[in-house]
Amino acid sequence: MNAGTPGSAVAAARDAASCVFCAQEEGAVWWRDAWLRVIEARDEPDYPGFCRLVWNAHVTEFSELSDGERAHLMRVLAAVERALRATLNPDKINIASLGNMVAHQHWHVIPRFADDPHFPAPVWAARRREPCARQHAARVAAAAGVGAAVRDALQRELG
């Protein structure tokens, strides 16, 4: 992996100590390898199946990854999306890499439904409606199988 700019080791160590993704898991780990992990986004209860791909090393920008690392991340991202689609049958999958608040390379993978609280706006926009309790409970139940589906999809994708 690209180490970043020269002389940044002290800054990287300081940033890693205060980074929520470096300091803790931030959710159930559905899958992990030497480069990244897929975690359940437990802080997003309105969105069962919402997960994050988190690069294990403290890297801020996608362009800091090597060609091979970027390719690996994209293969994992595509496999996670396929697993979410197969398990939850959402109307859409949103994929976002923002990192404005956490300077750590991570991707949000979010199953979206036309009746979810924010649709068609981003999940971070103002809420448009309250979720139907029955439909939400069914999605929570279906999402219980997402971790296994992600592991299976990544086993098929990566061997």
Structural features, described:
The chain has 159 residues and is of the alpha+beta class. It has five helices and five strands; from the N terminus they run ααβββαββαα. A five-stranded antiparallel β-sheet has the order 1-2-3-5-4, with helices on one face. β1 and β2 form a beta hairpin. The chain is globular, with a radius of gyration of 16 Å. The N terminus is likely disordered.
Helix-strand string: HHEEEHEEHH
The radius of gyration over CA amounts to 16 Å
Given the helix and strand composition, which structural class is it? alpha+beta
Residue fraction in strands? 15-25%
Bin the helical content: 25-40%
CA-based shape:
globular
* Spatial separation of the terminal alpha carbons: 22 Å
Instruction: Give me the number of helical elements.
Output: 5
Q: Compute the number of strand runs.
A: 5
Low-confidence segments, given as residue ranges, are: 1-10
Task: Strand order, main sheet: write it out.
Answer: 1-2-3-5-4
The main β sheet shows up as:
5 strands, antiparallel
Average pLDDT level: 87
InterPro entries: HIT-like, HIT-like_sf
Protein name: HIT family protein
Domain HIT: 45-119
Pfam family, one: HIT
